[in-house]
Amino acid sequence: MTELSSVDWSRAQFALTALYHFLFVPLTLGLSFIIAIMETIYVKTGSKRWKSITKFWLALFAINFAIGVATGIIMEFEFGTNWANYSWFVGDIFGAPLAVEGIVAFFLEATFFAVMFFGWDKVSKGFHLLSTWCVAIGSNLSAFWILVANGWMQYPVGMVFNPDTARNEMQSFLEVALSPVAVAKFLHTIGSGYVISALFVVGISAWFLLKKRHIIEAKKSIAVGASFGFVCSIFLFFSGDESAYRVTQTQPMKLAAMEGIYRGEHRAGIVAFGILNPKKQIDNNESVFLFDLTVPYALSVLGNRDPNSFVPGIEDIVYGNAQKGIEPLQNRIDRGKAAIGAFKDYQEAKKSNNTLLLDSSRALLEANFKDFGYGYLNKPEDAVPPIALTFYSFHIMVALGTFFFLLFIVVLYLTMANDIEKFRKILWLCLWAIPLGYIAAEAGWIVAEVGRQPWAIQDLMPVGVAATELGKINVQISFWLFAVLFTALLAAEIKIMLTQIKKGFDKEVA
Fold first, then answer.
1. Which pLDDT score is estimated for 209?
2. Of 382, 399, 385, 392, which Cα lies nearest the Cα of 289?
3. By CB distance 3.0 to 4.6 Å, which of 165, 226, 358, 469 could disulfide with 412?
4. In a 3-state reduction of DSSP, which class is residue 276?
5. Residue 393 CB burial class (10 angstroms; 0-12, 13-18, ≥19)
């Protein structure tokens, strides 16, 4: 087995932090809106029972919010400690949305959170309700700016490279903020968070029904949660469609990995279910699947809005396809090396005050900069991401998302018929759907991040170049420290939440 390098350990550490952090984020995004809806019903009706329901879910939200902040802060610090080259190369751009998130969105969220949690009976009903909605909006604004930063990594726009500082500088903040890739990523991510939150509310409420406790409160919570989840599942479908379309247009290699396409085809279908052949490699003629069920035309429609369109495969992208106007990646590698060489010549010319070389090297750099990152690849095959992990993660996400949609329909129907407590198997299914929601969300992040490897910034900077030159032992120590810390935080959250759930709703309700 190949020994892991310092870069590998840095990647593992960041993946660990991101995956743990995203165990907390989805519940914050969606539960904040569910609570706002519940409190709105309380203010409209004046029912103390709805106040009790709101306060119960608010307590669970507060536990999750407090612990989730810790992992988010650590993740941002890692950009400076483990990814210093990346931070230098794009800090002027990447840092801007993160700064807006901290200064505007997080302060909005944190300020009104205090009123929302501690302000019962201390402020008016109207102002308390306003605070709750501000927390919901603030938490989702935080997600927007973070995902703008991540979307820029996937599709870098609105900037120009300055060879004098060796940094990318922002030219258009709006182009960065409103990038179609960033917007699609934001909408799909918050949709995922909303569905997980709905599953959480429905599942915990189902537990109360199974235990025959707080029947009225549980039914009312299920009604809100299932309705919210049903609507958000539809939203998730459309945002997922738009996200896949943007991936097709900007990251065709990721799409090919998501669907296990090695050779491009017209009228390409989506694999509804498939088992990859472990012997298949880009340089052999083994069959791609041991078994697969494919929906004809669906991928061409999804990726290009045309059922007869051509969807390129991994081999087309790596080796080129002259008939389809796809050049081989070796050409991009050559241009990337030319850009890197021109940048070095520019730096030397600047030191020696060679004006002629300065102008020519800058012109060559600008002409080839869009392929700058390819110059660090040794061979075209290095641009291929891990196929199996991307493929299976994508299909797990889609399969679970479909299951959640059907579950919400069933639960909503039974709730409206006032029969939900009679179907114990459905209630158990709701309870076990909670961890499945998190599995689907984590699978989605694996698709987004593993599917774009080897890039830290698409086409501009590979992960290996982005990393800080740290001693491997230093990264290993911090990796295991974070692993223990995050696991302890997760265990603490689960324990505190279970204690709060067992305590139940306020019993002093008429």
1. 94
2. 392
3. 226
4. strand
5. buried
167-170 and 289-295 as β-strands: parallel, antiparallel, unpaired?
unpaired
Q: How far apart are CA 364 and CA 107, in angstroms?
A: 45
DSSP summary character for residue 420: G
Please provide the size of the chain in residues: 510
Q: What contacts 182, CB < 8 A, 6 or more positions away?
A: 147, 148, 150, 151, 152, 155, 176
- Nearest to 41, CA basis, from 33, 50, 32, 53: 50
Among 324, 308, 314, 299, which residue's Cα sits nearest to residue 245? 299
478-483 CB contacts, 8 Å cutoff, 24+ apart: 478/13, 478/81, 479/9, 479/12, 479/13, 479/16, 482/13, 482/16, 482/17, 482/74, 483/16
CA distances from 29 to 259, 440, 482, 497 (A): 29, 16, 24, 17
Give the closest residue to 331 by CA, choosing from 364, 265, 375, 287: 375
CA-to-CA dists, residue 477 to 243, 307, 480, 487, angstroms? 37, 51, 5, 16
Q: Containing H/E element for 209?
A: helix 180-210
For residues 257 and 299, give the distance between their C-alpha atoms in angstroms, rounded to a whole number: 13
Distance CA 131, CA 119 (A): 9
Of 15, 13, 156, the residue nearest 92 (C-alpha): 156
Torsion of the alpha carbons at 398, 403, 405 and 406, rounded to the nearest 10: 150
Cβ atoms 257, 390 nearer than 8 A: yes
Query: 158: which residues sit within 8 A by CB, 6+ positions away?
Result: 93, 152, 170, 171, 172, 173, 174, 175, 176, 179
The pLDDT value recorded for residue 199 is: 97
What the block records as the tokens of 491 is 């265990």
Segments in 101-169 forming alpha helices (H): 107-118, 125-154
User: What is the pLDDT averaged over residues 175-180?
Assistant: 92
CA-atom Rg of the chain in angstroms:
25
CA distance linking residue 321 with residue 248, whole number of Å: 17
- Evaluate if pTM is beyond 0.70: yes
User: How far, in Å, CA of 409 to CA of 235, rounded?
Assistant: 14
What is the widest separation between alpha-carbon atoms in the chain? 86
Give the start-end residues of each E strand in 262-329. 265-266, 270-276, 289-295, 310-311
